[in-house]
Design goal:
The complex is a heterodimer. By secondary structure, chain A is α+β, with helices and mostly antiparallel strands. Chain A has helices at residues 17-20, 22-32, 45-55, 57-67, 75-91, 96-113, 143-155, 160-169, 217-220, 263-266, 273-290, 323-336; strands spanning 6-8, 40-43, 120-126, 136-140, 178-184, 188-195, 206-213, 227-232, 238-241, 247-251, 256-260, 294-301, 310-317. Chain A folds into two domains: 6-184, ATP-grasp fold, A domain (Dna Ligase, domain 1), CATH 3.30.1490; 188-325, ATP-grasp fold, B domain (D-amino Acid Aminotransferase, Chain A, domain 1, 2-Layer Sandwich), CATH 3.30.470. Chain A is built from twelve helices and 13 strands. By secondary structure, chain B is an alpha+beta fold. Helices cover 55% and strands 11% of the residues of chain B. In chain B, helix 6 runs antiparallel to helix 7 (134-177) and helix 6 runs parallel beside helix 15 (317-363). Classes of the chains: A alpha+beta, B alpha+beta. At the A-B interface, helix 12 of A face helix 4, helix 5, helix 7 and helix 15 of B.
Chain lengths: 340, 560
């Protein structure tokens, strides 16, 4: 096991996927690309294993799983097992040397932000895609809360779906390559996603930006109709469809909540033209770096001036309808002209 | 075999052929004036084969290509319709897969075929016909037959696939953007592309510039086209000019003066038509107007593309744009296929046949080498290896007499079963949904709008309005009569007419559709074209002033 189990994003890159999980490695890679990323650190997979070993949680889980290996094929048993394993993990206290290290890092973050108890997001960062491993805690403040949420993220690797997935794939139950990202919350004026391809058509000459006031959760979850901007990659011209944005997600004392958008902001586009152009520019740049259409999450920080206020929290290959499907669709349409 | 069957097995037989199909249409675009027997043999056999091949390869749901018959030098065609609903469905399922190569890699497909066929031409040309043995000459001719057969396979497979995409694009423009194929915006979207035919024209223009720079202009302006070559040979500069010009001809001059016939020299044999075009450019002066025009058209096209795309819902734009790019290939294909396929293959047929003709004259079986065009391959094979043993003159004599008769009396435009009229026959063509029948042969029917008080009503092939002197041209031999700023009135046009488009103000054609030659070239030159007026060549007389409004599809005769 490596000695070091905690890293600043600046120390990471896409090659560290197995070490810290995809999300953290990605944030590191974005930093390396020169994109502005909220400051933060990563707890590596080794950190998780260290925790499991030192606290004895690993042995407990193994014993529990062995005692009911055959039963785990049943769904109700999987639900029960998930609850049980999460219980084991969450009942353990962070070993003191680990706790100290996390606190030390968090305090450096507070210093960098120039405020005590700086609000952070604590996100899971799996090294392999596993359904249900999506736990994210927003607006986490203070040493103790941060440590607690790191443990909860580890526990979230044992949702029912995740267990079913392991059983199906014959994976070890007590091992899970999961990292944790701890990053400064952005005081979000607005946030959203950008895709460097039109997902429904596979049109790569356009960039689509969607955004809403407040945190990006409202856009990512797809529950509200965001503003939509379509930018031409070549000439930079854009079309925008401004929606009536009635609700947004905001930071709350601890965590987040959905609030009403003030009347005068509902029909106003959430992005200024220069912000939109900057988002498109960086998305295009990232796409050409990875040589793949990108699906990225951006945030505009209320407290910073342009262009420092354009921050990035995620970049991954975009899913979109491939040209083959389009070709088949066109072939289908062509066949119809013989029926007229 | 009776010696007077020109296309054995495919001579028009009223009794049985009208029982098979109630309507046979004369291919007026290609077989007026009537074909020589040899050319008719090639066309009827292999154009027919190619269409059925293309329809089968693509598994066109409703049509199995066309059937063709030969009658008195004319080609008559009818459609082979798929009969049962069940078969249509089966073909449709296959069609959806068969059409994919056009969508996925159009350029790769077309360029691959061009390469293949050019390779065959090179192989044919590699034989020195004056030095080869009788066997080699006959083999060269057999290879030419196979090349022609293959050419028509490529031709019709590509044409069916290309025009299917074009028709879908027209339909989708109508459905999604509310723009139909007679709208100027639509025409802007599909024009402004370079192609091989235009590139050849450009080379000719460059030669006119060279003549100017080297002080040879007067040779062109002061002499008639047939004399230019001789005059050039009189000076060193002229000789050097002719040397380069001949090299250019050997590369791009494998084309016929008449699009679908082999009895006139190719540009390689006689560069007079090409030198005539250099003369035209020299007289006219200035820049190559197609370049200026193209620049303008490209910009218009980009604006029009945006306009059309903006009307299409965002989520549909991906495939729509892909379809638009595909439809834009249609115009390029329409022009280029004539160059690489028809014209070049016909030049190869002429070359190979004349080689045999000369050999037959030496052996005494023919009086004149061009008499070979009155023979068909079966008869050529009879004498191919030992021509001194056969006298073919009696066949030539009889066929030549027939051919001369054919020239005197025009073939009927359609042969119909008793009780079947032309409207019904046209209905069958439209119902076939055959992409070539719809886009090249039939076209949209003009709307007669009495409130416009026009003399002729047609459809828009290329938008715009023009007024000028009418010049009625019935065949290529009369093209030199066209003057600067005339409005050309013709039954139809073909690629050998392209150069005159640079000097005229507008075009009126009796028949045509949005992918006919006149429409495509008219759009590239940015001049109005009114199509499908049916009686243009009958009603308009050369020298009359006429006004055409292609946007409205109208023609006005100003001095009646």
């Amino acid at each position: 096991m490596a000695e070091q189990w905690i890293y600043w994003f600046e120390e990471l890159g896409s090659e560290h996927n197995d070490l810290v999980g995809k999300k953290c490695a990605n944030l590191g890679e974005l930093t390396r690309l020169g994109l502005r990323v909220p400051p933060g650190f990563a707890v590596s997979v080794d950190g998780y294993e260290k925790f499991m070993a030192k606290t004895g949680a690993g042995d407990e889980i193994r014993r529990y799983v062995q005692s009911r290996r055959d039963l785990l094929k049943q769904v109700d048993q999987q639900v029960e097992a998930g609850r049980e394993i999460r219980g084991i993990i969450e009942s353990k206290k962070m070993p003191s040397e680990m706790e100290e290290e996390i606190h030390r890092r968090y305090e450096v973050l507070c210093e960098r932000a120039g405020m005590p108890d700086v609000p952070v997001a604590v996100r899971s960062s799996g090294a392999v895609s596993m359904p249900g491993q999506m736990e994210t805690f927003l607006n986490v403040k203070g040493n103790n809360d941060v440590t607690e949420k790191v443990i909860q993220v580890w526990g979230s690797a044992f949702t029912t779906r995740a267990i079913a997935f392991r059983v199906e794939k014959g994976m070890e139950m007590d091992k899970t390559p999961i990292g944790v990202a701890v990053l400064k919350m952005v005081n979000a004026k607005c946030a959203g996603v950008v895709l460097t391809v039109l997902p429904t058509t596979g049109d790569m000459s356009k960039i689509i930006v969607e955004g809403n006031w407040g945190l990006g959760e409202s856009v990512v979850s797809g529950e509200m109709t965001p503003d939509q901007f379509i930018v031409d990659k070549e000439c930079g011209e854009f079309e925008c469809t401004v929606s009536t944005k009635k609700k947004m997600v905001c930071r709350h004392t601890s965590g987040t909540r959905v609030v009403q958008v003030p009347q005068d902001m509902q029909c106003r586009p959430c992005l200024e033209s220069e912000e939109l152009q900057e988002i498109a520019r960086i998305a295009k740049h990232t796409e050409s770096h990875f040589n793949l259409p990108q699906d990225m999450e951006w945030v505009i920080d209320e407290d910073l001036g342009f262009p420092e206020n354009v921050l990035w929290v995620q970049a991954r290959p975009a899913k979109y309808s491939k040209k083959e499907n389009e070709a088949e669709y066109l072939a289908e349409l062509m066949s119809r002209i013989f029926k007229m | 075999m009776k010696v007077y069957d020109v296309v054995p097995g495919l001579e028009f037989d009223p009794e049985h052929d009208l029982a098979q199909s109630p309507a046979w249409f004369l291919d007026g675009t290609h077989s007026v004036p009537p074909w020589t027997p040899m050319f008719g043999w090639f066309w009827i056999n292999f154009c027919r084969h190619g269409m059925q091949y293309g329809a089968q390869q693509l598994s066109l749901p409703t049509v199995k290509g066309w059937d063709w018959r030969f009658m008195n030098g004319g080609g008559y065609l009818t459609l082979l319709l798929v009969k049962s609903e069940e078969e249509k469905q089966r073909r449709e399922a296959r069609f959806k897969k068969a059409i994919l190569p056009f969508i996925q890699d159009y350029d790769g497909l077309w360029n691959g075929f061009v390469k293949e066929i050019l390779g065959q031409y090179e192989a044919l040309k590699s034989l020195d016909l004056d030095k080869g043995t009788n066997y080699e000459l006959l083999q060269n001719f057999e290879d030419t037959i196979n090349t022609c057969r293959r050419m028509w396979e490529i031709h019709m497979y590509m044409m069916y696939g290309t025009y299917t995409a074009y028709i879908l694009f027209e339909n989708m423009c109508r459905e999604l953007a509310g723009i139909d194929d007679t709208s100027p915006v639509f025409h802007s979207v599909v024009s402004g592309f370079d192609n091989k035919v235009f590139q050849v024209d450009r080379r000719l223009w460059e030669f006119s510039k060279r003549a100017e720079a080297e002080g040879l202009s007067t040779v062109f302006t002061k002499n008639e086209a047939p004399d230019i070559r001789g005059r050039l040979e009189e000076s060193d500069k002229g000789k050097a000019f002719m040397k380069d010009f001949t090299a250019f001809m050997n590369e791009d001059g494998w084309r016929m003066q008449r699009m679908s016939e082999i009895n006139l020299p190719t540009w390689v044999e006689d560069p007079t038509p090409a030198l005539g075009m250099v003369k035209h450019f020299t007289t006219k002066g200035g820049s190559f107007n197609l370049d200026d025009e193209r620049h303008k058209l490209s910009r218009n096209r980009e604006a029009a593309e945006k306009e059309v795309l903006a009307k299409v819902p965002v989520e549909q734009r991906g495939w729509f744009e892909q379809l638009m790019r595909l439809a834009q290939k249609s115009g390029i294909f329409s022009e280029e296929h004539d160059h690489y396929l028809d014209l070049y293959t016909h030049a190869m047929i002429r070359r190979s046949a004349l080689g045999l003709g000369r050999r037959f004259v030496q052996a005494g079986s023919l009086d004149h080498h061009e008499d070979i065009f009155f023979l068909i391959p079966e008869e050529i094979r009879r004498a191919g290896l030992a021509p001194d043993q056969f006298d073919l003159r009696y066949i030539v004599e009889r066929r030549k007499a027939d051919w001369q008769e054919w020239q005197k009396k025009p073939n009927p435009p359609a042969i119909l079963r008793e009780g079947f009229d032309l409207d019904q026959a046209m209905g069958v063509l439209v119902q076939s949904n055959d992409p070539i029948a719809l886009k090249v042969v039939v076209g949209a029917m003009p709307q007669v709008r009495p409130e416009l008080k026009a003399d002729l009503y047609g459809t828009c092939g290329s938008p715009g309005v023009a007024e000028g002197t009418a010049r009625v041209i019935l065949n290529e031999d009369e093209l030199h009569l066209v003057q600067e700023n005339d409005i050309l009135v013709a039954a139809t046009t073909s690629p050998s007419w392209t150069p005159v488009f640079s000097m005229i103000k507008g075009v009126v054609v009796d028949r045509g559709a949005s992918l006919s030659h006149a429409a495509i070239v008219g759009r590239e030159y940015g001049i109005p074209v009114v199509m499908n007026v049916f009686e243009g060549t009958a009603k308009v007389k050369s020298g009359q002033r006429i006004k055409i409004d292609a946007n409205m599809g109208t023609v006005y005769i100003l001095d009646k």
